[in-house]
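User: two proteins, same treatment. go.

Assistant:
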Amino acid sequence: MAHEDRAHVGAKRTYEYLRQHVFMPRLWKKVKAYTATCEKCRKAKPDYDQPLDLIVPTRPPPTQLSTQCIDFITSLPECPEGTTPS
């Protein structure tokens, strides 16, 4: 309950809040177990277990002072043949 009321601040902050307001044996263990199963926290937490994508080097510009653009948006739908995106 306190975890949701405190806006999903994680195990340490939830424990610090509860420690000031209630006494419960093995409070840290219970708070840590509860926050580990919180669905909202698990979805919002970054996943460091997945490997990062490989860095692909870009080709150097063909001439000096030419402009090179990089598009960071991925998985866009293909344009029909003969049209240009606006």
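Protein 2:
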Amino acid sequence: MTEGTDRWPGIPWPVEKGQAQMKKPTIRVTKWLRDIPVEANCSACPSVVFRAKGSGHRPNHEEFQKSIQAQFDEHCKAVHAQE
């Protein structure tokens, strides 16, 4: 092996250390109320759950979608900014 390369488990060829980065995290909706997303998680951090929050007692598609997106954006800034 040359300087700056390493063998990763399950990969039989040398891989540059900077090449083995994960894909950009995405939102994965895990619960729906008809066509309204009510719960989601981060594709890179499945244990992190985002629950939609609304201002009224009736679910609103746009409001719930924006709520989940805002929580995900905040999570990405805090956890995935260095990646």
